[in-house]
């Protein structure tokens, strides 16, 4: 739980990436924190999208479901140099908090200013109870392990609730359907807030079914807004009932062996609303039918809604408060947001709204987004929605990070990130993770970003030993584009690669089924044909010249970050990164070798050097790249899309 207030601002995110230039509004960013963190802890900066001062209602509408319950707006950032300029972001944050949470000045609010010329970032705090005064913050702490900070003592709560709303309206007055929709929504909200409502909580991890579920009912709902003041219940307070257990009851993540801290790997509590178990204190013992007579011709419209709420909680929060102060408000917010989105076109065109949860890179907390899927996610309105979200979250515009295929999937069995399933066989994934350092003194490491699968000789029972290394490198590259959601095509087989080259006229029909080698140029043709991916090709006359290309390769990994194919003579490798000392020229290459013929044994692959750092000349004077062979380097470029 949050501790005592202090005068330190703790940053869990990198403020150096913030851009406050251009024609943005006066308030550039909202500061996001959590009641489960110490006060003045900033988890993320979210750009203000709606520019006009009158657009606060639109901002609150967008942020209400975008930010999961358990995180909240705690301040704002604007251009400026001192305390006088910090007043505007403080007032803006308080106004937005009032719209979002219905509160005034009871929580401290941060006003941040960034110098228009210097770029210096300064923080001021407006304390609760004295909103007129601002206090300068002199100490800013940048957390070194922000993911661990967020997820070591936090967990997720996930609740899906499908609802059918039967709406009756008179044909003479079709606008009555809107009134019926509002009334139906209010009835669902009343059910959710009914003290007799029943909620079941269980772990979503299929490997830990030995943790029995918890049933919670009879909640005394007072809808706490300040979760930081909720303390764990003792046995005397609640008779130590199931609802007094904390979220840590479902904590199953191992803390040993350097766990991966992220939303994807967080402990997740699945919450189910048992509407069938609702009932009054004097429930009927016989069936009851209700009859509603109508005076004119009436039509029935059934609206299908699937609420899908994701919340963040401290492990110490009692389960009863996790339901009453996180899950229920989250469901109510989604109902209201869906209502606002659906009402304008309820009769003309029944919208297909669905919420998805994402954990985009650089954002510590998950986000929730509603997509309208009537015309598919490639329809231009959807593209513009994603582009606006990229702007708000500070995400690049050249890669799809918020497509449906990027969404968190809570139905999948949690598994080690090193394993991926492809065409029925188990492939190793991201095998370079944890590889020891290269040995380059004072070098800068530039690596592939994102995930890939390791393709090598003899996989899938297919004998391509001696000729298929470039095919395997191409398969690894295509797997990278698949896993980054640039494409949904399957990784092609050798024969499918050959057929593609025949179809574009690069090879004769006799090439299909042969064991002929291919090189960087053929790989570029296949990537262009199958994925629409363009490639840059670097030619070197001798392996001795490859170290001279390290600066260019480092730039590639820093900007494009795709795997690179190196082809020379009769050999092909996949390059995953470089370690380069610009002053001394010393460098090393992180090579993924497709010539490996063994089983999917990560330890064997790493210890055998099939994935590891290679110097152009090793400590015994041997050349890794042959001096009497020319080499082509294929650098696939990221498609420019969201």
TrEMBL record:
Q: Which InterPro entries match?
A: Papain-like_cys_pep_sf, Rhodanese-like_dom, UFSP1/2_DUB_cat, UFSP2-like_2nd
Sequence ranges assigned to domain Rhodanese in this UniProt record: 604-622
Q: What is the protein named? A: Probable Ufm1-specific protease
Superkingdom field: Eukaryota
User: Which Gene3D superfamilies does the entry link to?
Assistant: 3.90.70.130
What family is reported?
Belongs to the peptidase C78 family.
* GO BP of this protein: proteolysis
Name the keywords, alphabetized.
Hydrolase, Protease, Thiol protease, Ubl conjugation pathway
């Amino acid at each position: 739980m949050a501790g005592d207030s202090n005068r330190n601002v703790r940053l869990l995110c990198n403020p150096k990436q913030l851009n406050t230039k251009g024609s943005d509004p006066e308030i550039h960013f909202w500061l996001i924190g959590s009641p489960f963190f110490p006060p003045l802890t900033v988890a993320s900066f979210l750009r203000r999208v709606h520019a006009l001062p009158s657009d606060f209602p639109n901002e609150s509408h967008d942020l209400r479901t975008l930010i999961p319950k358990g995180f909240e707006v705690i301040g704002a950032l604007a251009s400026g140099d001192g305390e006088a300029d910090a007043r505007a972001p403080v007032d803006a944050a308080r106004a937005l908090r009032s719209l979002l949470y219905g509160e005034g000045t009871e929580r401290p609010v941060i006003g941040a200013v960034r110098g228009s010329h210097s770029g210096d970032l300064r923080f001021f705090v407006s304390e609760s109870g004295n909103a007129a005064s601002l206090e300068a913050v002199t100490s800013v702490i940048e957390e070194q392990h922000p993911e661990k900070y967020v997820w070591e003592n936090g967990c997720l709560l996930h609740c899906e609730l499908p609802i059918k709303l039967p709406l009756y309206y008179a044909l003479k007055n079709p606008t009555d359907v809107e009134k019926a929709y509002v009334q139906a929504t209010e009835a669902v909200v009343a059910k959710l807030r009914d003290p007799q409502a029943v909620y079941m909580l269980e772990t979503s991890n299929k490997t830990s079914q030995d943790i029995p579920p918890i049933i919670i009912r009879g909640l005394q709902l007072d809808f706490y807004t300040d979760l930081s003041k909720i303390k764990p219940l003792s046995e005397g307070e609640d008779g130590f009932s199931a609802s007094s257990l904390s979220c840590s009851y479902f904590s199953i993540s191992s803390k040993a062996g350097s766990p991966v801290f992220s939303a994807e790997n967080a402990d997740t509590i699945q919450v189910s609303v048992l509407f069938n178990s609702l009932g009054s204190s004097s429930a009927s013992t016989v069936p009851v039918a209700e009859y509603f007579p109508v005076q004119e011709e009436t039509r029935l419209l059934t609206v299908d809604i699937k609420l899908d709420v994701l919340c963040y909680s401290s492990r110490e929060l009692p389960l009863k408060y996790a339901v009453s102060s996180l899950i229920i408000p989250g469901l109510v917010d989604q109902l209201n947001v869906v209502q606002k989105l659906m009402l304008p076109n309820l009769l003309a065109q029944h919208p297909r709204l669905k919420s998805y949860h994402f954990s985009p890179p650089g954002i510590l907390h998950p986000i929730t987004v509603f997509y309208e899927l009537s015309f598919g996610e490639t329809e231009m309105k959807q593209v513009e929605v994603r582009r606006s979200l990229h702007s708000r979250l500070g995400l690049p515009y050249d890669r799809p990070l918020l497509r449906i295929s990027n969404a968190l999937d809570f139905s999948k069995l949690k598994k080690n990130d090193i394993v991926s399933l492809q065409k029925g066989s188990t492939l190793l994934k991201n095998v370079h993770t944890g590889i020891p350092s290269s040995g380059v003194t004072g070098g800068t490491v530039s690596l592939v970003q994102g995930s890939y699968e390791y393709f090598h000789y003899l996989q899938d029972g297919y004998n391509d030993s001696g000729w298929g290394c470039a095919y395997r490198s191409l398969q690894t590259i295509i797997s990278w584009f698949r896993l980054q959601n640039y494409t949904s095509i399957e990784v092609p087989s050798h024969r499918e690669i050959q057929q593609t080259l025949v179809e574009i006229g690069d090879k004769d029909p006799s090439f299909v089924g042969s064991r002929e080698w291919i090189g960087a140029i053929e790989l570029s043709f296949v990537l262009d044909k199958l994925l629409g991916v363009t490639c840059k090709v670097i030619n070197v006359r001798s392996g001795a010249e490859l170290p001279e290309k390290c600066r260019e390769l480092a730039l590639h990994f820093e900007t494009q970050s795709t795997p690179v194919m190196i082809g020379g003579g009769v050999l092909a490798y996949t390059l995953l990164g470089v370690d380069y000392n610009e002053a001394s020229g010393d460098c090393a290459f992180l090579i993924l070798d497709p010539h490996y013929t063994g089983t999917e044994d990560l330890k064997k692959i790493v210890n055998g050097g099939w994935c590891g750092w290679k110097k152009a000349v090793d400590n015994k004077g041997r050349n890794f790249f042959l001096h009497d062979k020319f080499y082509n380097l294929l650098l696939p470029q990221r498609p420019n899309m969201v």
